[in-house]
Amino acid sequence: MEYHPQPTAGEARPWAFPAPERGALPNGLTVLRCHRPGQQIVAVEIFLDAPLDAEPEGLDGVATIMARALSEGTDKRSAEEFAAELERCGATLDAHADHPGLRVSLEVPVSRLAKALGLVAESLRAPAFAESEIERLVGNRLDEIPHEQANPARRAAKQLSKELFPATARMSRPRQGTEETVGRIDAAAVRAFYDAHVRPSTATAVVVGDLTGVDLDALLADTVGDWSGNAGQARPVPPITADDTGRVVIVDRPGAVQTQLLIGRIGADRHDSVWPAQVLGTYCLGGTLTSRLDRVLREEKGYTYGVRAFGQVLRSTAPGSSSGATGAAMLAISGSVDTESTGPALDDLWKVLRTLASEGLTDAERETAVQNLVGVAPLKYETAASVAGTLADQVEQHLPDDYQAELYARLAATGTVEATAAVVNAFPVDRLVTVLVGDAAQIAEPVRALGIGEVSVVSG
Amino acid sequence: MPMGHTATAQAGSGGLTATEHRLANGLRVVLSEDHLTPVAAVCLWYDVGSRHEVKGRTGLAHLFEHLMFQGSGQVKGNGHFELVQGAGGSLNGTTSFERTNYFETMPTHQLELALWLEADRMGSLLAALDEESMENQRDVVKNERRQRYDNVPYGTAFEKLTALAYPEGHPYHHTPIGSMADLDAATLEDAQAFFRTYYAPNNAVLSVVGDIDPEQTLAWIEKYFGSIPSHDGKQPPRDGSLPGIIGEQLREVVREEVPARALMAAYRLPQDGTRECDAADLALTVLGGGESSRLHNRLVRRDRTAVAAGFGLLRLAGAPSLGWLDVKTSGGVEVPQIESAVDEELARFAEEGPTPEEMERAQAQLEREWLDRLGTVAGRADELCRYAVLFGDPQLALTAVGRVLDVTADEVKAAARAHLRPDNRAVLVYEPVEAAEETDGADGTDAHEGADK
To answer: Which residues from B are below 8 Å from A139, CB to CB?
Structure first.
């Protein structure tokens, strides 16, 4: 073939993260809307201020069961009828409970938005919470637990939370409850949680898609506008603390062919001015297969299909909140390596961290990371669902509506020195809790020899 | 649109158009303009997949796909990844039974770079391919196999089902990941021969979709790909044709450390690209798609004997498609109880066919899935390549949803009656064995935490 020199880039067309229009309905529901031409599948995200911290003592999982029960019948429709009507719209509806609160996500072709949003409104305004349906959901949830337990990545995540957070903190325990707590949940408990925490005045609906020809005001008034509730009371927000004393916990899986790694601690959330630098530095450490970790662990040594470093916000508080508590993100490195390579892979991983701390990032690395993180934005936000998801994340994290748009400017302005400092601070070699789900008989000794912290073994 | 409940007047083809071109070396090109967002998707399908592999070299097509990211004539090491990501693009490659695809989604102004990179490896991969890459990626792929299949409960179920449903020696008998032994056995010479056989412009389709100037794009494609010589090294794949139904019920019981009993089955279904395949898709959706399907209502809602129950469809163009039933049992429920309920539902469905409401729901679900797929430039580029490679006509991608909406309830019933029957399935039953360590439950009762959202 005839070789040609590598082409240079053309002129970039400007793109900005979309600015939503913010408003409120008479019932107090906050609404963010965003017109995205061409996106025929509309995404609706509804955030309910019903955090896991609000679950009553001993009833971990009640928020999850309530979230699932929202789509299991209303004052007008049985569970089967509700599911059938929703699918008749070609819609999908998901609801899940997490530390910041509960999220209901609807996706539907715009031509059937009115019908589907009517169903969602019905489920928020008048959920049936029938005893037999709650019993079924509880039974189903209990059946799911062993499946999650058997999954190495999920088992590792559960163990890390248990290790990091004090036993009294909700964050130390599984988001969706344990067999013991879920088993106690009944229809009355679900109803009580709903009555205490679900109301339009503390909820936000985000609507994104091609809204050409849609009278969204009328549509909202006819659907979620009907939902009513009292004002609700502010809850105290407990601070997030974690014990990141460097140590290793092996969750024993005799005979496992791989070891699942999850190495983490907590750090700054998006309200902290270090966030852009932390994002940039974390990307350079383990954002992709050409980042530092995979360059060695995957592309040089072949120990793994891929190892990633990431920061994921656990919960944020409004700036200047009365409790003075601040939010936090989980900062972690995860991946899996073949059993035999566990010791050598961790040894290399620590070497990568130490080298990063001693030598820092290069300007070229920082430049590539900025180009990627900023440059992929138009791709990443092509669909309505991705835009709605980020806008709803901003809402639940008490961030301004232009946060993401501003973040791109801040990333571009972050220098190599700041990014280095942030990532070294985020992943200090002696303050990392390492969870390994794997064959203890084979991996415990090589891992002890590394001196990355005291090693203990728990059963799988 | 005959059904009168389409999401938009022009659902699926909704104003989308595509043009087709062919270079002198045989490279087929499909272009589709869409200026809503300043991005462009490049997608390259090579007409080679695991069905082209020979005995003793399963997994080679996929291993080779990894090697395509290890540098080429003018691109060093991981340069392909570095350059695309450094340009604000995203990229990957995947391997299936019937094809290998490579794709980059770029900000518009970086489109030329992606074309240059794809052309460089199509024309000059062997200039960079060496033992070191081969050994490294062999280890990576073996770890991919462990992570995705071997170290996950039920992880090898699909592999076992295809091995049952497609007989020994059939090109679809093994899955793209291949066996550990064959991955170990593959040599650099195998990889070089694989490239020389299958990686040629006349064995590929390139689609570019998005915010593009078609004339300029075509000129770039001519410039970078035009001088790559075509060749006819490729042999046609082994014949994948099989009788329409299996003719007996095949069965395998797996005793493994899994969290619950499971009933899985693979049904032999009509080939992709036929109206019967769309009818079968609708039948599987009514029976086992979503939360209002017959199996979900029966097993999860009413009998409460299953944690989850559903059907999936693997569309195949070169062999019968595969309908995959997956039911995980609840608590102590035994498999025969599930199996007789499934048989009852399938028999009733074959007898009655879908109700008008069920047809409407199933078609609405499949329509949304199509709108989703065509709603991104990358999804559209992939579908255009799919229809060009497998069916010779990319335009079919833009009208696919219309064909699904055109199917009648009688056709769905006929598809179910012909195919969803006990003598046309391979059954896989999982019976858990207890691990000594898992008996106390003291530390074994919690659910997951989701650090990996």
So the answer is: 304, 330-331
Note the ipTM here.
0.96
Nearest-angstrom CA–CA distance, A424 and B215: 48
Contact yes or no for B45/B95 (Cβ under 8 A): no
Residue A236 within a domain: no
* Annotated active-site residue in B20, B33, B53, B65: B65
pLDDT at residue B116 greater than cutoff 70:
yes
Residue B298 confidence (pLDDT) above 60 = yes
Determine, for residues B437 and A177 on separate chains, whether the beta-carbon distance falls below 8 Å: no
Q: How many CB atoms lie within 10 A of CB B215?
A: 9
Can you state the angle between helices B335-352 and B409-419, rounded to 10 degrees? 140
Query: Residue A232: inside a domain, yes or no?
Result: no
A305 touching B, CB under 8 A? yes
pLDDT digits (tens, 9 = 90+) for A218-267: 999 999 999 999 888 888 888 999 999 999 999 999 999 999 999 999 99
The per-residue pLDDT for range B207-259, each reduced to its tens digit, is 999 999 999 999 999 999 999 999 888 887 789 999 999 999 999 999 999 99
Q: Which domain holds residue A434?
A: 247-459
Q: How far is B260 from chain A (nearest CA, A)?
A: 8
* Closest in A40, A87, A151 to B7, CB measured: A40
CATH H superfamily, domain B19-225 = Metalloenzyme, LuxS/M16 peptidase-like (3.30.830.10)
Q: What does the alpha-carbon distance between residue A457 and residue A450 come to, in Å, rounded to a whole number?
A: 16
- CATH class of the region B250-434: alpha beta
Report the distance separating Cα A157 and Cα A175, nearest Å: 11
CATH number reported for the structural domain that contains residue A61 in this entry: 3.30.830.10
The type of residue at A110 is V
Mean pLDDT (whole number) for B104-108: 98
Last residue of a domain, one of A193, A226, A259: A226
Using a CB-CB cut-off of 8 Å, the residues of chain B touching A154 are 448-450, 452
Q: Which of residues 392-411 of A touch B (CB under 8 A)?
A: none
Q: Is B65 an active-site residue?
A: yes
Same domain, A347 and A407: yes
Cβ contacts of A206 within 8 Å, gap of 6 or more: A20, A31, A32, A33, A34, A43, A44, A45, A46, A47, A388, A391, A392, A395
Q: How far apart are CA B383 and CA B396, in angstroms?
A: 9
Distance CA A165, CA B317 (A): 52
